[in-house]
Amino acid sequence: MRRENFNDLLAFVAVAREGSFTRAAARLGVSQSALSHTVRALEARLGIRLLTRTTRSVSPTEAGERLLRTVAPHFEEIEAELAALSELRDKPAGTVRITCAEHAANTVLWPKLSAVLPDYPDVRIEINVDYGLTNIVSQRFDAGVRLGDQVEKDMIAVRIGPDMRMAVVGAPAYFARHSRPLTPRDLAGHDCINLRLPTHGNLLAWEFEKDGQSVNVHVEGQWVFNSSTPRLTAALAGAGLACLPEDMVLEYVAAGRLEQVLQDWCQPFSGYHLYYASRRQSSPAFALVVEALRYRQ
């Protein structure tokens, strides 16, 4: 059946329901003469009269009643489904994929998104923990999380966390065997727990700053990991010094399980930002995630 035949049927159903060409034409947004022509064309094609016309009313014939009972429910189902889809347009639904480091996932994404997701059961969040500087466009992620100074200039960035500080820590058992470093250069004589990131290849330097002086130190040690949690575990076990986000270690420092050194060399820096490629990222689900993560002081 050709597409215009569906239009003919829709016109017939409207007239039969309204009992008037005038009211049906107004509902469909067409002229009365055009609507009359469409219905007559349908009757001619079927070879049977569908409507009885008088000067005061229009009513279906027996054939018209039969056709109306057959096709009208289908049009009603279609209209109901289109209405439902229209509602979904403004209702958050679908999957939002985000790539980030483990620390960002644990300290920002999980606590903020887990608080709002129960109210939106049709939204799904996929978190990919990756320490590389992932290309979110080629890897088909909706967004990524990086420190503020790592976000590329052509990306849209939304701050999702406060400024951060790093902390150099070791267990009391470690300091029982080693002196406490007073400057970053003193780390050369210490067993340090290193981090290797896939995008860097080499071991990541420890960065320090004091009185406008920046110092990058390449440390040595028996242990190398590619994420934060194993380095914290190793530091707690007394395996060496670790340089970790301060919020990861404060509870252990307060409990006496770790001791913090070089505090005056660990300055605040720009915290986590959600970044994405285009302002056209406007789905309700994505907008929900952005607003849930947005940092508010």
Give structural attributes.
297 residues; alpha/beta; five-stranded mixed β-sheet; three-stranded antiparallel β-sheet; 9 helices; 14 strands; 20% strand; rod-shaped
Topology, element by element:
Elements lengths: L2 H16 L2 H8 L3 H15 L4 E3 L4 E3 L1 H28 L4 E7 L1 H15 L6 E7 L13 E5 L8 E4 L6 E5 L1 H4 L18 E2 L10 E5 L2 E5 L6 E2 L2 H9 L5 E4 H9 L4 E3 L10 E5 L7 H10 L4
Parallel strand pairs: 3-4, 3-5, 8-11
Antiparallel strand pairs: 1-2, 5-14, 6-14, 7-12, 7-13, 9-10
Strand order of the largest sheet: 4-3-5-14-6
Approximately what portion of the residues adopt beta-strand conformation? 15-25%
* Helical fraction: 25-40%
What is the typical, i.e. mean, pLDDT? Answer: 87
Shape: rod-shaped
The radius of gyration is: 34 Å
Could you state the order of secondary-structure elements as H and E?
A: HHHEEHEHEEEEHEEEEHEHEEH
How many β-strand runs?
14
Helical segment count: 9
What separation lies between the terminal Cα atoms? 61 Å
Q: Profile the largest sheet.
A: 5 strands, mixed
Low-confidence stretches: none
Class of secondary structure makeup = alpha/beta
